[in-house]
């Protein structure tokens, strides 16, 4: 394990965030799949990751405003702050450490405020007293200085600033910087084929946007800087969509980029706007999976949209391969996708009697495991109503 690279999220706890009044995901695998009925809270879990990413990248106020402030974030009828707890493992001086990051936010005088922000680490075995690396409230707190071995008092400019984002810009605080870079480096996907049909201004871009509207720019970047990666993408795409031979990103006279796909039976490539939705969306996903520097966490919401059902088990296999180097979170309704998932990777989300979300791991169900041991697949169990915790009909 690299000394400055978290190995992945081990657990996350969420309180008072919309439907997630009090939920926990423990012992997360490198591939984590969420399934449940419409309105059960799957997208809300996905949005928690998006909220934290935006708060670290663009500022808490920006993420807060984008969601209609506290009225759009806090659980209905709840009092007190919205809280998150994130645990991941990293290496410090060649020793494994479990890092815990806690964030509690509230509203005061119409503005967001960080009620508490705390980062601490423990030993690999979790023994001994955890050490606070940062501990802040309303813009004031302390940060541990590794060189001096002492805590230093720090005052931020505003109570809505995250200490991790502010202090993580300085080399003097390497552990804080690791966390800042880790969360701000997450990639959350809301790709649609329609957005991928754009003709943007030419210019290579290293990573696909959340909507996929810069796909031609990413293809241009791969053409120019990583042709071997693009070749691998063509290879995989042609295996999944046999008639596709190659993809090019060509610069027009007015400086815009045009995406073209070459079909094997024809001499000339066709414009992206004439290519099927499924082919374009699969191409967009492959640019993420074969990114030369993959994000530490990748989120994919409902990949089954616009894809043929036969491609979904194959897509699951591609995602499993990328999960060797990145942690992947997927939300889905698709039994075809679930058929390629292991029980320990699947979390079922349903609404409890109080209307708030409840989460259950499939591998924690004795009934599910007995049927899996007998040869059943999760996709078939979903179709037959045995994933009761996520069943829209409420079968128990």
UniProtKB/TrEMBL annotation:
State one Pfam family annotation.
Answer: AAA_21
* Protein known as: AAA family ATPase
Q: This protein's superkingdom? A: Bacteria
Provide the taxonomic classification: Bacteria, Bacillati, Actinomycetota, Actinomycetes, Mycobacteriales
Q: Where is the ATPase AAA-type core domain?
A: 31-337
Name the PANTHER family on file: ATPASE AAA-TYPE CORE DOMAIN-CONTAINING PROTEIN (PTHR40396:SF1), ATPASE-LIKE PROTEIN (PTHR40396)
InterPro entries cross-referenced by the UniProt entry:
ATPase_AAA_core, P-loop_NTPase, RecF-like
What organism does the record attribute this protein to? Skermania pinensis
């Amino acid at each position: 394990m690299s000394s400055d690279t978290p190995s992945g999220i081990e657990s996350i706890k969420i309180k008072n965030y919309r439907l997630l009044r009090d939920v926990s995901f423990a012992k997360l695998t490198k591939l984590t799949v969420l399934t449940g009925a419409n309105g059960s809270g799957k997208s809300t879990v996905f949005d928690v990751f998006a909220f934290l990413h935006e708060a670290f990248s663009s500022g808490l106020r920006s993420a807060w405003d984008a969601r209609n402030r506290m009225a759009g974030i806090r659980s209905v009828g709840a009092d007190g702050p919205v809280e998150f707890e994130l645990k991941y493992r990293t290496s410090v001086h060649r020793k494994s450490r479990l890092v815990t990051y806690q964030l509690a936010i509230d509203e005061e005088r119409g503005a967001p405020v960080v009620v508490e922000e705390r980062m601490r680490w423990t030993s690999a075995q979790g023994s001994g007293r955890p050490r606070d690396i940062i501990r802040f409230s309303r813009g004031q707190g302390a940060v541990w200085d590794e060189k001096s071995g002492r805590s230093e008092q720090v005052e931020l400019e505003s109570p809505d600033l995250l200490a991790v984002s502010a202090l993580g810009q300085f080399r003097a605080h390497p552990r804080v910087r690791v966390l800042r870079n880790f969360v701000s480096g997450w990639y959350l996907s809301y790709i649609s084929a329609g957005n991928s049909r754009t003709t943007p201004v030419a210019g290579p871009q290293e990573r696909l946007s959340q909507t996929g509207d810069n796909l031609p720019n990413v293809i241009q970047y791969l053409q120019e800087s990583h042709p071997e990666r693009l070749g691998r993408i063509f290879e995989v795409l042609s295996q999944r969509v046999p008639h596709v031979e190659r993809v090019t990103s060509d610069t027009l006279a007015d400086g815009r980029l045009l995406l073209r796909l070459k079909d094997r039976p024809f001499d000339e490539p066709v414009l992206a706007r004439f290519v099927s939705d499924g082919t374009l969306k699969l191409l967009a996903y492959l640019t993420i999976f074969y990114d030369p520097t993959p994000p530490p966490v990748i989120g994919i919401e409902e990949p089954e949209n616009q894809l043929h059902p036969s491609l979904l088990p194959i897509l699951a296999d591609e995602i499993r391969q990328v999960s060797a180097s990145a942690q992947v979170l997927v939300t889905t309704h698709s039994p075809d996708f679930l058929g390629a998932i292991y029980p320990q990777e699947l979390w079922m989300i349903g609404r409890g009697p109080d209307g708030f979300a409840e989460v259950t791991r499939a591998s924690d169900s004795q009934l599910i495991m007995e049927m899996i041991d007998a040869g059943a697949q999760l996709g078939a169990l979903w179709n037959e109503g045995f994933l009761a915790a996520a069943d829209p009909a409420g079968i128990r």
